[in-house]
Amino acid sequence: MVITLSKDRMSISREQDLVPFRNRVKEAAVKIGMGIVNQTKLITAASELVRNMFRYAGGGEVLIEVVSKGRESGVRLTFTDKGPGIADLSLAMQDGYSTGKSLGLGLPGAKRLVNEFDLKSTVGQGTTVTILKWKNG
Amino acid sequence: MANSLTQLIQSNKARLLDLWIQKQLTSDSLRDDLMSNDELRAQSEELVNALARSLTEENIDQVDSIQFDEVFEILSGISVYRAQQGFSPRETGLYIFSLKDAILDLIRQEITDPARLFEESVRINRLLDSLGVVTFETFIKGREEVILRQTEEISDISTPVIQIWEGILALPIIGTLDSSRTQVVMENLLQRIVDTGSNIAILDISGVPAVDSLVAQHLIKTVSATRLMGAECIISGIRPEIAQTVVHLGIDLSNIITKASLASALKHAFAMSRMAVKRIDVDKKAL
Question: The CATH number of the domain where A88 resides is what?
Answer without folding.
Answer: 3.30.565.10
